Amino acid sequence: MIGSFFGIIGAGHVWVIMMVVVVQTLVYKEVIQLAQVPSREKKLPWYFLVSTNYFLYGESIIYYFKQIVMIDAYFLPLATHHRFISFVLYIIGFVFFVSNLKKGHYKFQFQQFCWTHMTLLLVVCQSHFIINNIFEGMIWFVFPVSLVICNDIFAYICGFFWGRTQLIQLSPKKTVEGFVGGWACTLLFGLLWATLLMQWDYMICPVKDLGASAWSNHTCEPKNPVFKPVPWELAPRIASFIKRMFFVEIHEVYIAPIQLHALVMACFASLIAPFGGFFASGVKRAFKIKVGESWLDIIFVYPSVTYEI
């Protein structure tokens, strides 16, 4: 699974975006099904999903590729009136919803309407931000997801060998020792992984050609300052300690801002992201979903972009 993930990363930005959209759609489908009753209206939530995707992804394409869409005879009218078209699409769905209200089903229909909009907000809008991050540079997608994968692996290893204290009732096998061990390992991995990725233009350059892949020639000047090492002066006590321990005089070190950001993101991936998995466990228990019965289960059980969502 990890090999397939990195294969998609190497194939190019389009394939990564498609993967995010597929995962987003599967999560949306599962969450919507929790509020549905068999044989009731099922088409409306999908209409709103398509309308929302048209608006959000259209905004991204117009912003990042305006030099293309604004000169194309076919795309220019769509780009110029994009927000109006999106508004009309939403109004059509709203009118269709109101015109199909049925006596005796008002409560269910309004519950489904609200559930659909909350799901769009919590799932679709957030995946839209993930895709915007991909446009800004592949590293902003690859690095956070890699941190989650690393944390999941090392939390399991540390919990397997040293786990004694239960962390949370929702997941009885999760231990405090595994949680803390995964955090420490993810901090180290994050620092090293960020240092490696910042050397690769394919990772740090904003997307210019959607057809590009890891084997294409990527250059971007000027590069984002966050990837440029800058000198940091060491405190006198730290410099003195290094001199006594290693017999080397060091008064300043070069650190790129991304390396400091990596530590913060590693803390988030270790201390916050696991609760996405715990949340999924709570959902499965609340709605009596057995392991393997749901895409939600498959997606959350294994480390993936869904932790981002």
From TrEMBL:
Primary residence: membrane
Entry's localization field: Membrane
Keyword Lipid metabolism in annotation: yes
Any one cellular-component term (Gene Ontology): endoplasmic reticulum membrane
Enzyme class: transferase
Catalysis performed (reactions): a 1,2-diacyl-sn-glycero-3-phosphate + CTP + H(+) = a CDP-1,2-diacyl-sn-glycerol + diphosphate
GO annotation terms (biological process): CDP-diacylglycerol biosynthetic process
Keywords recorded for this protein, A-Z: Lipid biosynthesis, Lipid metabolism, Membrane, Nucleotidyltransferase, Phospholipid biosynthesis, Phospholipid metabolism, Transferase, Transmembrane, Transmembrane helix
Sequence similarity: Belongs to the CDS family.
Protein name per the record: phosphatidate cytidylyltransferase
